Structure formats: C-alpha cells, structure tokens
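chain below, 363 aa
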Amino acid sequence: MEVVQVLHMNGGVGETSYANNSFVQQKVITMTKPIMEDAITKLYCSTYPEEIAIADLGCSSGPNTFFVVSELIKAVNSVRQKICQKSPEYQVFLNDLPGNDFNTIFRSLSIFQNKLREQLGPGIGPCFFTGVPGSFYGRLFRKNSLHFVHSSYSLQWLSQVPRGLENNKGNIYMASTSPPNVLKAYYEQFQQDFSLFLKCRSEELVDGGRMVLTFLGRRSDDPSSKECCYIWELLAMALNDMVLEGVIEEEKLNSFNIPQYTPSPAEVKYEVEKEGSFSIDRLEVTEVNWNAYQNETDLSDAFKDGGYNVAKCMRAVAEPLLFSHFGEAIIDEVFRRYREIVADRMSKEKTEFVNVIISLKKA
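prediction:
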C-alpha cells in the first residue's frame, strides 16, 4: 500500500464525509485550545513580528480546518489590541497529502475570511492562504519561513506500513495477539518518521518558532493496550467475521495493516530530546469519549446511537484505506457490522481516545 497515495479522509460534504463526521477531532482541538493560545501568545510577544506564517499540517477539510486558524488569529489579535499594536499580516499554509479534498477548503475560503473580518473588525491584517499538498515527513517550506506549526490527530499516521508484519495474521493493527516483532516494527517506524518530522520542521521554523502537536496516543507503556488499539481490534472482528463467511479472502485480510502508531507521552518526549532541535514547553494528556455526542443535547435519534456515531467517524477516516485494499463492494457491510460491535462494547465498557499534546519551542 502506497500510503501517500491512498491515505486521506473522506472528502466532500456528504453523509460519510470527514467534514460531517469529525466532531471528535473538533472536541480535541477545543480541549487543546488553551495550549495553542499560550504558545502563539508567547511567540507574538517575544518579537511582535509584522507578519506571522502559520502552517496547519494534516489540515484535512471541513470546519476543523478553519477552526484552528481562526482561534490562533483571534489569540494574536486579542493581545495586539491590548497593547495597541498594529495587526500583523498572516500567511496560512494548509497542508495535507495530495488526495486531500482541497477543493472543498478553497470553496469555503471566502466565507471564512468574511466571517473572520466581521468578528475581528477592520483592524485585522490581511490573511493569505496557500494549499500545500505533500507529506510532512519531508521538507515542505523554505528555511526559516514559519513562525508557528500546528498539527492535530495527524502525526499518529505513519509514512508507510511497517515492514515485516507478515505474521500479524487476523489483525489489522497492533493487538494483544500481535507477535513482539510486530510491535517493534511499528515503534521503529514511528521513531524514524517523527524524528524526520522534527528535523524538517526545525529547518523551516524561525528561531524561537513554536509548534503544538496533538497525537492520538496512549497513557500505557504497552503499545498494544486496549486504550489505543481497541477501536481497530473491533474493526478487525467485523472483517474476520466476513472472512469466515467467505465474503473476504483470508489472504487479503492478512495482508492489510493500518499505517498508524499511537505513542505514549514518554515516547514523544524521548524523540524530541533525542533529535535536539526543540525544547518542551508543555506535555499533557487528555481523554475524549469515542462518542463525541455523548453529552450533547437536542440530538436527532440517529445521533443518540453511540455505535452509529463512532462507526461514521471511523468510516470517514478509514474508508479510503479499506476501499484501496478490499474494493468498494464490502464497505457498507463492514461498517454495518462494525456499528453493531462498537455499540455492544460501548454499552459495557469505558471507551475513550487518549490525546498526547506537546508544545515545543525551537531551541
């Protein structure tokens, strides 16, 4: 599987699109907002730059793309008004892999810019947007050209499926039944990728530049613990059932593995310190329920169904990978079964995603 070519969230604004099924991700960004505001405020107050270049890496498409940018600009604008400083100009780079739905982003750009001007008034400086397709496991920008880098729920995705997973049979990710070599291969791929990410960003950020990165991660030292792997184990259950019924070939399932690694805070910290370009300002861990709508009011009957919500969220993320490997014919049936399995487990167990958030300053 060529990850760069097939990894992207479901595009458009339809029922199974990422734009309409990314409420979990929005909640995580909202939870991280104080850390983002703190970082960009410190950046701005250190030199009061006349222009600020912001990169959102793994921006995807939909409301979350502009939500991050909006909150960062609002934070700077609030500070500069208090000290009667002229607004800086903003250059915003929206990055994701080439398969990302950039068209939906650009179609809604003018609406966002008009709304931002209405909210912040005529004193706000101009804001220029650029789409940057490409992998962040490589250079994307000129040297010393960025002031602030943000990435949320993207860096757990690996540049490729680790090599040597042939004996991970019946699993589609790390699992309690995965052999030790599988866990080792996943961790080593994460180390290689994240180290390269840090190296590239250190070249692109100005001295004193900041990054706030949020990983889907885990608290446990065990990379195959339920808190990070369970959501995929349940999808593997649906696929294995379809193998037993002859709908999917066993060989096809055994050759499918998710290109993701959910790190612990200690693993993230270790790679940052080993690479050496950044100092750690903050390192925090939070949780969010699998069903982001759990405590919401005024929901339609469909959205009161936790299994339905989680299955749609995961479909928006995983469908392109499954489609590429298994074909279109199985997709609806896989997620119908997955919804039932997830609903059953959520009724019996505590189900939460763990978020590892790190705020960094270029040393």
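Residues 10-14, 16-21, 299-305 have pLDDT under 50 and may be disordered. The chain has one domain: 3-362.
thats it, cya
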